[in-house]
Amino acid sequence: MPKALVVADEVDERLWTDAVRTVSVDLVIGAGDLPYDYLAFLAGALDVPCVFVPGNHDPDLSGYTRYGGLSMKDGFPTPWPGPAGGVNADGRVVDVAGLRFAGLGGSIRYNDGPNQWTQRQQARRARGLVRRAKWRRWRDGRDVDVLLTHSPPLDLGDRPDPPHRGFACLHRTIDVLRPKWLLHGHIHPHGEPVPDRVVGETRIRNVVGHRIMEFS
């Protein structure tokens, strides 16, 4: 039963110290909009892997390829701006610490910043993710455990203002992949309780801040 430190959007200064070493987890999960140095510190201090998706305030990681310790972009070696040792799940299906993740980072497009998508663009990315997940399921029989996103599904934990609207395509993605969990950030509770939402077999959880979660 893997246990994870799940973080998004809001840095907890108490965790960005050696005090975090008292936390016992198997991996760090990042749902976006956190300094990559913060994610790298958490994973390094805890000596566990880190899987994440970028948020709309994070640097653009598209176009980078990584082979071992070498990062390439446009055919040239270049430093990777992401967290050291982190696994970027955006648009990918990855297995980390015994869990299978399918990732879709970013938010709805509201200006010219990075990691922002129109509903149509994110729907296209979601279809590609579903194809990859189906292929992996055909190959090894394993389903997706966690759909890791930065933004929530439309009308399921999002907000009415334009920058915080959710993605409609996540409804179909949930229907097809049937993950046990959808974890997202982007929507700051500001002290209000945020209950989980359940759609079919999937539990949707806002993980802004930090949480310790066990995955059966």
How would you describe this structure to a colleague?
By secondary structure, the chain is an alpha/beta fold. It contains three helices and 16 strands. The strands form four sheets. The protein has a six-stranded mixed sheet, with helices on one face. Strand 14 (197-199) and strand 15 (202-206) form a beta hairpin. Helix 2 runs parallel beside helix 3. The protein starts with a strand and ends with a strand.
Can you count the beta strands?
A: 16
Strand content: 25-35%
| Assembly annotation | single chain
Sequence of strands across the biggest β-sheet: 8-9-12-13-15-14
State the shape: globular
Q: How much helicity do the residues have?
A: 10-25%
CATH architecture descriptor:
4-Layer Sandwich
Quick summary:
The protein is an alpha/beta fold. The protein contains 3 helices and 16 strands.
Write the layout of secondary structure elements.
Blueprint: E1 3-8, E2 27-30, H1 36-46, E3 50-52, E4 64-67, E5 70-73, E6 76-77, E7 87-88, E8 93-96, E9 99-104, E10 107-108, E11 116-117, H2 119-140, E12 146-149, H3 169-177, E13 181-184, E14 197-199, E15 202-206, E16 209-214
Parallel strand pairs: 1-2, 2-3, 3-7, 9-12, 10-11, 12-13, 13-15
Antiparallel strand pairs: 1-16, 4-5, 5-6, 8-9, 14-15
Helix pairs in contact: 2-3
Protein name: Metallophosphoesterase
Domain Calcineurin-like phosphoesterase: 17-189
InterPro entries: Calcineurin-like_PHP (IPR004843), Metallo-depent_PP-like (IPR029052)
